[in-house]
Amino acid sequence: MFWSLIPLVLIAVVLAGAASQCTVATNGPTQGQIPFFDADAALRSDAETLSFPIRNPELPEDWQSNSGSRDTITAADGGPVSTVGYITPQATYMRYTQSSASEEALSRHVLGSRYPTGTVDVGGQRWVVYTEPTEETAWIADLGEVRILITGAGDEAAFTTLAEAITTAQPLAG
């Protein structure tokens, strides 16, 4: 019985190959096309609509915006939320969220039950660091009327680049 199945399996493999239903990858996965997202237009719209200062960081040209969203934190001390995501030159995803919500409400909304594990200073701005071994790192800064949360798969240099760009950006006119 086993020997009678071998010709059938060979015929199925040949037919699948001929129909281009199977391929053999020799150099691993390749990156697909990064979706286009107009972060400038989205953040201008957020600045006109939302009641807190919106910042549009000037990032290096090789950072590509690929996503964005709005949300509302309905918990105590919550508020509207604006988020933009980027793909870094190292092909990692980073995003930053701006909100008038308190740091605690923002962290619970985005990070769940994680707690602060330290701080880092970037350009004179204190960022509270949230780390957990199985989760992405997150940084939160209080810029007065707005809290900024950065998270993603990038390394410390990516976090620092994004943090510097955000803290040096002037709020957009609303």
Automatic annotation (TrEMBL):
Keyword Signal: yes
Record keywords, A-Z: Signal
Classification via InterPro entries: DUF4245
Signal in keyword set: yes
Domain of life: Bacteria
Signal peptide per UniProt: 1-25
Name this protein carries in UniProt: DUF4245 domain-containing protein
Pfam families: DUF4245
Organism: Nocardia mangyaensis
